[in-house]
Amino acid sequence: KIILFFIAFYGFLAGIFIGTIQALLLTLSRYKPTWQDRISPPGLTHNPHLDKAELMFSMNDVDTYISYTKSMKDFLGSYSEEIQRDPFKFEDCGEQADVYKNRGDLEMEIGIRKACRFSRSWLGSCSGIDDKHFGFSEGKPCLIVKLNRIVNFIPKPLQSNDSVPDEAQNKIQPNVIPIYCTNKKEEDAGKLGEVKYYGFGGGFPLQYYPYYGKLLHPHYLQPLVAVQFVNLTINYEIRVECKVFGENIAYSEKDRFQGRFEVKIKVNNF
């Protein structure tokens, strides 16, 4: 009798537990967090991924940078024209930066959303199409930069340009989240040289947002910006900081990739 009692007792407890879990699961959305008081700003990351945020190589030795160029080639594989040809998965979103692309609410029963096409050729000298070395063999390395995906995040352009450095004011344009890279240390002024930006509008155009998540937006391609350092001081280590500027994009000392990143670059010629 005691054994039967405990079997019934623990069976009852298990039933309550399973019922509670099932009831909780019914309240959860498949497409977005149930409780979300705010959406955190996205991280700003780059390819190639770097150990210790250091990009150091010799322009005369392919073995010192082949891992970087391979990483970039593999990453850009998903941006090939062949993959984006399917009209049921992708659509053209204009040749000019535009406002947000509204594809309905996350909970709307309209199925999988189409993704905006992003042409790899927009990345210019950093596309890997004409230069498979992405500038490394000439001492002019490229970084492919992206804002990390956050479901339902909509980046907002700045209402005021006061927070943007004077040198970057010319990068401000409608419907684009701008990016700007500069030397981190004052003593490195003049060592960085010219920085070129390639992509759709030279920043992150708004029509690529929002992102609807893996279930509803499985073919989504986030917009990219290629940053090329074309006149670095050779045999000199310089710390570079890249930032994006948006009304709802903040920076954090606790998260070195939130809205920005730093990288040490040294190009050798021996």
TrEMBL record:
- PANTHER family per record: SODIUM/POTASSIUM-DEPENDENT ATPASE BETA SUBUNIT (PTHR11523), SODIUM_POTASSIUM-TRANSPORTING ATPASE SUBUNIT BETA-1 (PTHR11523:SF10)
**UniProt key word Transmembrane:** yes
Among the entry's GO cellular component annotations, what is one?
sodium:potassium-exchanging ATPase complex
Which Gene3D superfamilies is this protein grouped with?
Answer: Na, k-atpase alpha subunit
Task: Describe the family membership recorded for this protein in Swiss-Prot or TrEMBL.
Answer: Belongs to the X(+)/potassium ATPases subunit beta family.
One term of GO molecular function? ATPase activator activity
Which species expresses this protein natively? Electrophorus voltai
Record's bilayer topology term: Single-pass type II membrane protein
Where is it localised?
Cell membrane; Membrane
Main localization is membrane
- Put simply, this protein is called Sodium/potassium-transporting ATPase subunit beta
Record's keyword annotation contains Kinase = no
Task performed by this protein: This is the non-catalytic component of the active enzyme, which catalyzes the hydrolysis of ATP coupled with the exchange of Na(+) and K(+) ions across the plasma membrane.
Transmembrane spans: 6-28
